[in-house]
């Protein structure tokens, strides 16, 4: 797919997500628009309904009163002038005259002729207005004789009713002639009034729709006015959460949102000051530890030289040390070595805290690295290892040696021997197994020294007394694969298992904490409490991880997982290739 198309797709996706985020129901903007719309819709519908009902009643009442008044007047003037027993021709003629009034309604007259037969006269002829068009209830009410009272002086009254035929509304009315005479019915179409009312309804509906649209626009404008400061506050809060503590909001106005912005600025200012104070104290603390460690090395160098002489005197067969003070001399020697280790560990921790630790990568054979670590510390009789030669990785060999020394040394101190070290490869697809990169190991072990057939090494880290300095210090010059090919992906997994009682469950979460030591359930450690913490920091520097669990078969299992190629990590460090975490280099930099 072309890059431009990919960018276009990502832009469209981002825009769509942005629109959806603004329109989702949990959005305050949408809720404001919905609430404004519902309020406007309720108000508009209520007002339109009331206006329609009032206008409908006014129109119908006005038309009805005019028609009924005209009909009543026609009944008195024309129907009242007929004889008591008119003929059908007379009824027909009178009905036609009544229908030609100003209101133009249909008329039906009913009476008895001189022969006593009921005759009908309709303004529309025989096929016009008939009794079938008059509701039975209305005919009954018209023919019912009323009782004469002081308030009702006539036995018959005018009655009316609204009906609908074929979808057209009609007004039907009827009455009997006062003083005797024919019964008259009137039928008036209300279709013109219905059309006027329909036009009014449409007008009110359009007005309601416009009001709804106007309310939505007004709500959008109000939401924008209200939410813009809230959005700025959210952006500022995210920037503050990202560590940009100098973020501030521009405050204008005196409303609640302005007060909220001022509160945010005060909180951000206080947070920035607090973080600055904490950073200053942390920097002072790190500087103190670094300076203390550096200053301790000068007298320790002299003390170490003296203790080495005393140690040689202790091993001299001639008895150069008085037996009375021999225990004290041995205590001084051991505590001096412990103090040396503590100072080295403190300096290592200081480099990690200061962010000056760097990786010096090389292609190493993991089996050679493990063998060299165990051999250098004389752990051959206490450690068993299952590491196939040919498993290569591009890592920092010195730091791997530190990790292995701390994990194996911790297992020997706190667990039970023999300690078993195993290696496997986790491929990227999740499969396990050792995958050799090269059947023949490259020249030189992972510690950079040339390995002889007898397993001896000369690594540049040799002490004056011939011993090997713990931690594998010295120049690391592993050669990697012979064919110079690139390493496969996946991870190298190294497990260190001891035969001890395991780690208590309450201790497991803290085994990598600095200066943390287990309770009485494990033997008291003579170390500094920094070894496992330094091992974890070195693993993290490689983009790896160390986990600690208890094995179901007994004992503790520490699992180290490292990428087989961590070159990408060093490329992100501005291309720096200096080994700034080397102890001697750190001394010179001070």
TrEMBL record:
InterPro entries: HAMP_dom, HATPase_C_sf, HATPase_dom, His_kinase_dom, HisK_dim/P_dom, HisK_dim/P_sf, Sig_transdc_His_kin-like_C, TCS_sensor_his_kinase
Catalytic activity as recorded in UniProt: ATP + protein L-histidine = ADP + protein N-phospho-L-histidine
Domain Histidine kinase, first and last residues per copy: 291-566
PROSITE patterns membership: HAMP, HIS_KIN
Biased segments, Acidic residues type: 581-590
Sorted UniProt keywords: Kinase, Membrane, Phosphoprotein, Transferase, Transmembrane, Transmembrane helix, Two-component regulatory system
GO molecular function, one term: kinase activity
TM stretches of this protein: 32-54
Biased composition (Basic and acidic residues): 448-468
Compartment(s) of residence: Cell membrane
Stretch forming the signal peptide: none
UniProt feature, compositional bias: Gly residues: 469-488
Enzyme class: transferase
Keyword Kinase: yes
Chain ranges of the HAMP domain: 224-276
Pfam families per UniProt: HAMP, HATPase_c, HisKA
Main location: membrane
Positions of region (Disordered): 427-503, 568-590
Enzyme Commission code: 2.7.13.3
Protein name: histidine kinase
Organism: Streptomyces cathayae
Classification of source organism: Bacteria, Bacillati, Actinomycetota, Actinomycetes, Kitasatosporales
